Amino acid sequence: MANDSIRVLPVTGTIGADIEGVDFSQDVSDEVFTQIRAALVEHLVIFFRDQDISLDQQAALTRRFGPPANIPFIETMSENSEVIEIVKEADEKTRFVFGGAWHSDFSFQKEPPYVTFLRAKEVPAFGGDTLYANMINAYETLPDALRDKVDNMVGLHSGDRAYSPKMQGLQDLLENMQVNNTEEAQVVQRHPLVRVHPESGRRGLFVNPVYSVGIEGMSAEEGEAFIEGLNKHALHEANTCRFRWRQNSIAIWDNRFTQHYALNDYAGKRRHMYRTTAAGEAPVGIGA
Ligand SMILES: O=C(O)CCC(=O)C(=O)O
Question: Which atom of ligand 1 is nearest to the CA of 118?
Answer without folding.
Answer: 9
